[in-house]
Amino acid sequence: MGLLSKKDIKLITDPLADNNPITIQVLGICSALAITAELKASIVMSIAVLFVMGLGNLTISLMRNIIPSKIRIIVQLIVVASLVIIVDLVLKAFAYELSKTLSVFVGLIITNCIIMGRFEAFALGNGPVRSFIDGVGNALGYALILIIVGFFRELLGSGTLLGYKVLGDPIEKTGVYAFGYENNGFMLLAPMALITVGIIIWVQRSRNEALIEDN
Amino acid sequence: MGLKEKLHNISEKVKGTKFQTMFGAIHTLFYTPKETTHSGGHLRGADDLKRTMMNVVLPLIPLLIFGMYNVGFQHNAAINGFPEGIGFFSSEFWNLDNFTFGALKLLPLVLVSYVVGLGIEILFATINNHEVEEGYFVTGMLVPLIIPIDTPLWMLTVAVIFGVVIGKEIFGGTGMNILNPALTIRAFLFFAYPTWMSGDKVWVAGAKERANEIMEGANLDAISGETILGSLAQGQELAYSVSDMFFGFVPGSVGETSTLLILLGGLYLLYTKVASWRIMLSSVIGALVMGLIFNGVVNAGWITESSKFYSLMNTEFWHHLLIGGLAFGIVFMATDPVTGSQTNKGKWIYGFFIGFISVMIRVFNPAYPEGVMLAILLMNVFAPTIDHYVVQANVKRRLKRLKAKTA
């Protein structure tokens, strides 16, 4: 037996594709819309959620037999809040500018539905190792969508990637700007993030028709 | 064998192949297809969707031609000075110079709008294997009439793709869309490329180009193409008389300037019963009421001349119908039967708020000097809700009547 069994691997790969927390379960949309105007912010947000979700799932799973079920939501909130505070302080200490860009959305990781959802649905009923893997898997699924959306929004909206001017300089008129190209300001506004997520959902479901819900 | 027969024969040949949808679209544009319903009793109207759509395109043609003259006229007037007190038939407006200049500017926009939009419609129809729907005939004509004349063609292409795919096709195509597709296209351009869609450099052909040349050091006079709403928002004196505004010798989007031709187009739409008179009338009432309220605020002295809203509030209430795109929006866009309210009472409410909100946005939001687009889109979103409550109220009233009778 290898390090991960087949079932464990499925815990990681499922959220990446056919059970993606954003595009299939439609959770965690708010932060996906709010902070994806830049690729860098998307990546940092993804790492933060990865950290909180992996450790959060692990912690809850370790405590699952001693948490009284009547107050379990409060316990979950305390766990996730402590982890988020750690992330927030680390960001403020080492990446102050970025933490200003992400502003309240780091704090709002607490209310991210994906995290509470995984605590409730998985960590409370499974062992610590599998819970940890599940947390990482779902965070990676979240990260994947965030990075795709961030990539397109930054590229089309500002003409840059991670701050590098990959399309040329819009003021000096170099690169594609020499041909009259202009940045699409709409991509930087939240509605376009929603539409981008919608297009990803569209593409994903038309490739795999089993995902289409009846209504 | 006539052309009609030939077309019918070809349509038999392509049946079942990938070209069926594309050919069928072209075919039924000219002739009614042979296929008819065989079973059951049916009343067959002479005007199908295509004919109805053409009834909307028809009154837009005079606006398009007037627009061509006006584009050239504004360009020349901005360089040589605006001729004093011109009448509707004055030769300073209706000359070949103006027309050729305007036509060369405008026709590419029309062409791109139709080719790209219809291309996407056909693509989707082929993939989904249904007939090409005719909704784009109107949209494709509306789009060049509501955007600035200098809009680059690639921007228009991007916007049309966005508007048709996101605004219409994903909801299920013609008849299923929530938002007016032409306004979706314009809204996309407006938010994506604001420097090309607002300000004083976009409404007269060549103004932006000229400004760039001057910046690079050319010895030229700048062309200013401030629209009436733009100058009012900045509290400047108006350069145009009321008759100029009514006839349409003013800068602006191509189709919106001539209130006279819009009025005639509106009468045609009412005569053919394509558009709803309730929506048109209530929109006009809404705009007048809001205008009167603002006039009242000024007259009561609640606002001083130093306020940045003063000059727009002080505009006489009925002038709002002459300036900007309000008249065009009310006649050709608010009355869209797909995106508007369906119930009669709903139409009154829907129309009233379009006029009301348009004038409100004009006055209170200098960043969006033209509120008609946003007002119509907003009310498009609310139209189903309005209808729902109108229907529910009706159900409730009838239930009450029933109870009173049976009790």
Describe this structure in words.
Chain A: Its EC number is 7.2.1.1. The complex is a heterodimer of chains A (215) and B (407). Chain A is mainly alpha-helical. Chain A has helices spanning 6-16, 29-34, 39-63, 72-94, 96-102, 104-107, 113-121, 128-158, 190-207. Chain A has a domain at 20-151. Helix content of chain A is 62%, strand content 0%. Chain B has 407 residues and is mainly α. Chain B has two domains: 13-32 and 48-254, no CATH class; 275-396, no CATH class. Chain B contains 17 helices and no strands. In chain B, α4 (96-128) runs antiparallel to α5 (136-146). The longest helix of chain B has 35 residues, at 372-406. Chain B is globular and about 70 Å long. The interface between A and B is medium-sized, with 11 and 13 residues.
Key terms:
heterodimer, A: 215 residues, mainly alpha, 9 helices, 62% helix, globular, B: 407 residues, 17 helices
List the helices and strands and how they pair.
The complex is a heterodimer of chains A (215) and B (407).
Chain A: H1 6-16, H2 29-34, H3 39-63, H4 72-94, H5 96-102, H6 104-107, H7 113-121, H8 128-158, H9 190-207
Chain B: H1 3-14, H2 20-30, H3 49-80, H4 96-128, H5 136-146, H6 153-167, H7 181-192, H8 194-197, H9 207-215, H10 228-233, H11 242-247, H12 259-271, H13 277-299, H14 310-314, H15 326-333, H16 344-364, H17 372-406
Family (chain A): Belongs to the NqrDE/RnfAE family.
Transmembrane segments (chain A): 43-62, 74-95, 101-119, 131-152, 185-203
Catalytic activity (chain A): a ubiquinone + n Na(+)(in) + NADH + H(+) = a ubiquinol + n Na(+)(out) + NAD(+)
